[in-house]
């Protein structure tokens, strides 16, 4: 849960796993071969704990009969050193994922929230990453510190929803930092979710790196400027294998899978979304442009009467704080209900 002390942390590198160059290297990763990825890259040390937490959560909700959605959120990093000083990152703050998770919870889903550690979380997102310091939400009243009365009504509403999610065990919060942690976690969680068959929904909103440095090429220690020609650092990255097809075919066949496609060029968005559907054969791609992602998105499906549907907020709605996720989630849920109905 957002406030409970988490057991798993991902942002510190696992230094005791730093590559010891006195032992033979890991075989070079053939990144075109998806299975090979998991043999040539090391699993995070906490993976069994993550599996256990996921499995308990799913077992719990098999009993409650709730549908379970995996929401992935935030950006993965690509470490350039094993004792990581430098890494490649991306812009994602986790707004889409954290906001969507709240709407899923309010619609009766249990949520596994696989997010970039320290990115936005459901409920706390309203206060954690704003320009305000949290102390700005407080006020001194009669010599005591209290919630500033101007925020207390809205905070109470959010607090009640948050407490409900905690009390009913509706939200499992799991972290990742690196792309490697993300991929290992996604595989483990997917295989656990497989038990729920069509009741499982994947909502993959994380911004996952397309390129990475496999462990076989990762330097153990901080890269030194003098080790490189003229002080230049040339980084040669491998493509991250595309695991979505694996997810569809073998990790969680039966589940409904929604992925996101982010582009910056509006002319290629629909083409890329369709390409993703052709390649991975999943059910739904939600396309969005970096520049307008909070205002409009597009649903792209392979079949059906309306294979392409745009959802947009007006400027007035945006100004009044309406969130695009309030349009996205009910429509994803409709697709999921249809998926369950068709596969009964
Ligand atoms: O986290 P955020 O709200 O700032 O951004 C959300 C997003 C644009 C990363 C997400 O909507 C998305 O498109 N994710 C997939 C990115 C991709 O194409 O890999």
Task: Please explain how this structure is put together.
By secondary structure, the protein is of the alpha/beta class. It has a domain at 15-123 and 167-254: CoaB-like (Rossmann fold). The protein is built from ten helices and 14 strands. It has helices at residues 34-40, 47-64, 95-106, 125-128, 149-167, 179-193, 244-251, 269-280, 315-319, 325-342, and strands at residues 68-73, 78-79, 87-88, 110-116, 138-141, 144-147, 171-176, 200-204, 211-212, 238-239, 256-263, 284-289, 296-300, 308-312. Strand 11, helix 8 (269-280) and strand 12 (284-289) form a beta-alpha-beta unit. Helix 2 packs parallel to helix 6 (179-193) and helix 3 (95-106) crosses helix 10 (325-342). The longest helix has 19 residues, at 149-167. The radius of gyration is 21 Å and the shape is globular. It starts with 33 loop residues before the first helix and ends with a helix. Bound molecules: ligand PAZ. Ligand PAZ binds at residues 92-96, 205, 207-208, 260-262, 288, 293. Pfam families: DFP (PF04127). It comes from Wickerhamomyces pijperi. InterPro entries: CoaB-like_sf, DNA/pantothenate-metab_flavo_C. Belongs to the PPC synthetase family.
TL;DR of this structure?
It comes from Wickerhamomyces pijperi (Yeast). The chain is α/β, with parallel strands linked by helices and 344 residues long. It has ten helices and 14 strands.
| Termini Cα gap | 33 Å
- Order of strands across the main sheet: 7-4-1-8-11-12-13-14
Question: Which homologous superfamily in CATH is the superfamily of one domain?
Answer: CoaB-like
CATH classification class of one domain: Alpha Beta
Under the CATH scheme, which architecture of one domain would be assigned? 3-Layer(aba) Sandwich
Percent of residues in beta strands: 15-25%
Helix content: 25-40%
Number of helices: 10
The largest β sheet comes out as:
8 strands, mixed
Which cofactors or ions or other ligands sit in this model? Answer: ligand PAZ
The average pLDDT value, as a whole number, equals 91
The outline comes out as globular
- Number of β-strand runs: 14
Structural class label? alpha/beta
Quaternary state of the chains: single chain
Order of helices and strands: HHEEEHEHEEHEHEEEHEHEEEHH
Radius of gyration: 21 Å
GO molecular function: phosphopantothenate--cysteine ligase activity
InterPro entries: CoaB-like_sf (IPR035929), DNA/pantothenate-metab_flavo_C (IPR007085)
Protein name: DNA/pantothenate metabolism flavoprotein C-terminal domain-containing protein
GO biological process, one term: coenzyme A biosynthetic process
């Amino acid at each position: 849960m957002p406030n409970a002390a988490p057991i798993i942390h991902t942002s510190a590198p696992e230094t005791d796993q730093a590559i010891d160059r006195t032992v033979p290297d890991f075989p070079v990763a053939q990144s075109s071969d998806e299975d090979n990825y998991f043999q040539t890259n090391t699993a995070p040390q906490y993976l069994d704990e993550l599996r256990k937490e996921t499995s308990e959560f799913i077992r719990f909700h098999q009993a409650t009969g709730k549908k379970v959605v995996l929401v992935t959120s935030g950006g993965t990093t690509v470490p350039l050193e094993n004792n990581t000083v430098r890494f490649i990152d991306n812009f994602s703050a986790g707004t889409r994922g954290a906001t969507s998770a709240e709407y899923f919870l309010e619609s009766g889903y249990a949520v596994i929230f696989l997010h970039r550690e320290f990115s936005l979380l459901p409920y706390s997102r309203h206060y954690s990453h704003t320009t305000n310091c949290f102390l700005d939400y407080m006020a001194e009243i009669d010599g005591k510190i209290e919630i500033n009365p101007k925020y207390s009504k809205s905070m109470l509403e959010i607090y009640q929803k948050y407490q409900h999610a905690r009390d009913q065990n509706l939200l499992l919060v799991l972290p990742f930092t690196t792309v490697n942690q993300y991929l290992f976690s996604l595989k483990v969680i997917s295989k656990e979710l497989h038990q729920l068959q069509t009741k499982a929904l994947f909502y993959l909103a994380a911004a996952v790196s397309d390129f990475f440095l496999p462990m076989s090429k990762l330097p153990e220690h901080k890269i030194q400027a003098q080790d490189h020609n003229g002080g230049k650092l040339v980084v040669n990255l491998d493509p991250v294998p595309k695991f979505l097809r694996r997810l569809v075919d073998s990790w969680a066949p039966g589940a409904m899978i929604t992925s996101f496609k982010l582009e910056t060029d509006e002319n290629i968005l629909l083409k890329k979304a369709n390409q993703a559907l052709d390649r991975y054969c999943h059910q739904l791609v939600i396309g969005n442009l970096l520049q307008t992602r909070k205002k409009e998105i597009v649903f792209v499906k392979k079949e059906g009467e309306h294979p392409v549907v745009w959802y947009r907020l007006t400027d007035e709605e945006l100004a009044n704080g309406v969130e695009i996720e309030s349009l996205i989630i009910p429509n994803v849920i409709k697709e999921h209900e249809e998926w369950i109905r068709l596969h009964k």
